Amino acid sequence: MYKVDLNSDLGESFGNYKLGLDGDVLKYISSANIACGWHAGDPMVMDKTVSLALEANVAIGAHPGYPDLLGFGRREMKVTNEEAKNYVKYQIGALWAFAQGRGMKLQHVKPHGGLYNMAAVDAELAKAIAEGVYEVDKNLILMGLANSELIKAGRNAGLKVANEVFADRAYNSDGTLVSRKKEGAMIQDRDLAISRVVRMVKEGKVCAITGEDIDIRADSICVHGDNPQAVEFVNSIKKALEEERVKIAPIGEFIV
Amino acid sequence: MYKVDLNSDLGESFGNYKLGLDGDVLKYISSANIACGWHAGDPMVMDKTVSLALEANVAIGAHPGYPDLLGFGRREMKVTNEEAKNYVKYQIGALWAFAQGRGMKLQHVKPHGGLYNMAAVDAELAKAIAEGVYEVDKNLILMGLANSELIKAGRNAGLKVANEVFADRAYNSDGTLVSRKKEGAMIQDRDLAISRVVRMVKEGKVCAITGEDIDIRADSICVHGDNPQAVEFVNSIKKALEEERVKIAPIGEFIV
Amino acid sequence: MYKVDLNSDLGESFGNYKLGLDGDVLKYISSANIACGWHAGDPMVMDKTVSLALEANVAIGAHPGYPDLLGFGRREMKVTNEEAKNYVKYQIGALWAFAQGRGMKLQHVKPHGGLYNMAAVDAELAKAIAEGVYEVDKNLILMGLANSELIKAGRNAGLKVANEVFADRAYNSDGTLVSRKKEGAMIQDRDLAISRVVRMVKEGKVCAITGEDIDIRADSICVHGDNPQAVEFVNSIKKALEEERVKIAPIGEFIV
Amino acid sequence: MYKVDLNSDLGESFGNYKLGLDGDVLKYISSANIACGWHAGDPMVMDKTVSLALEANVAIGAHPGYPDLLGFGRREMKVTNEEAKNYVKYQIGALWAFAQGRGMKLQHVKPHGGLYNMAAVDAELAKAIAEGVYEVDKNLILMGLANSELIKAGRNAGLKVANEVFADRAYNSDGTLVSRKKEGAMIQDRDLAISRVVRMVKEGKVCAITGEDIDIRADSICVHGDNPQAVEFVNSIKKALEEERVKIAPIGEFIV
Question: What is the ipTM of this complex?
Answer without folding.
Answer: 0.96
